[in-house]
Amino acid sequence: MAIPDFQSVMLPLMRYCEDGKEHAISETTDALADQFKLTDEERKALLPSGVQEVFRNRVAWAKSHLKMAGLLENPKRGIYKITQRGEARCFLCACSTCLC
After folding, report:
1. Which of 34, 64, 81, 100 is most buried, taking the most CB atoms under 10 A from its CB?
2. Residues 4-31 as b or e (16 or more Cβ within 10 Å = b)
């Protein structure tokens, strides 16, 4: 499987955070890499700059966009969790007034 783009990481990231607990980016990156069944080579692939892993970068961008949407928050540096607004969303069908 190819390394997913950050948009493809957003929904699994929100589902991972539905437990309401605080999560570190490294813990989440590993869990999502397992979920996407990334190979060791894909997990270790670096950006052209050679500084950061591609998948870690994609998870960080997904987290950043979800934070801007008010669905995730950073209670402290390097830690994030779902917000009340994020908890109110249905991530089965991605609506805000779901009855499913």
Report:
1. 81
2. bebeebbebbbebbeeeebbeeeebbbe
φ, ψ dihedrals at 73, nearest 5°: -140, 160
- The residue among 78, 62, 86, 71 whose CA lies nearest residue 24 is 78
What span, in angstroms and rounded, lies between the C-alpha atoms of 28 and 74?
14
Whole-angstrom CA distances from 77 to 22, 43, 56, 97, 98 are: 11, 24, 16, 32, 33
Burial class (CB in 10 A: 0-12, 13-18, 19+), 83: middle
> For the segment 12-22, what is each residue's pLDDT rounded down to a tens digit?
999 999 999 99
Candidate CATH numbers 1.10.10.10, 3.90.1150.10, 2.60.40.10, 1.10.8.420; the one for domain 6-88:
1.10.10.10
Report whether 8 contacts 61 (CB < 8 A).
no
